[in-house]
Amino acid sequence: MSFWGAYRSLTPRTRIYLGVGVIGWSALGLYFTDKWEDKIASKKAEPGQAVGQPTLQDEVPKANEA
Predict the structure, then answer these.
(1) Could you tell me if 28 and 19 are in contact, meaning their C-beta atoms sit under 8 angstroms apart?
(2) Which domain does 26 fall in, by range?
(3) Measuring CA to CA, which residue among 64, 66, 38, 60 is closest to residue 51?
(4) Residue 47, in any domain of the structure
(5) What is the pLDDT of residue 48?
(6) Are 18 and 10 in contact (CB under 8 A)?
(7) Cβ 50 vs Cβ 60: under 8 Å
(8) Is 21 helix (H, G, I), strand (E, B) or coil?
(9) What is residue 65's predicted lDDT score, i.e. its pLDDT?
(10) pLDDT (tens digit, 9 = 90+) per residue, 11-28?
(11) Number of domains within the chain
(12) Whole-structure pTM over 0.85, yes or no?
């Protein structure tokens, strides 16, 4: 039985719960990922630098990098 066939064999109520669960999990992931990204970026930012903006040191290639 394929994945689609297994999904179709579920009751409609179970399919609704599964769909709402996936959408809820995705929404929570998007919400918390943005929060964690802001926390991490603000810790790495230098004073006076906008959050998420790369510094000049990040943009200049180093001689030992290939």
Answers:
(1) no
(2) 12-38
(3) 38
(4) no
(5) 59
(6) yes
(7) no
(8) helix
(9) 59
(10) 999 999 999 999 999 999
(11) 1
(12) no
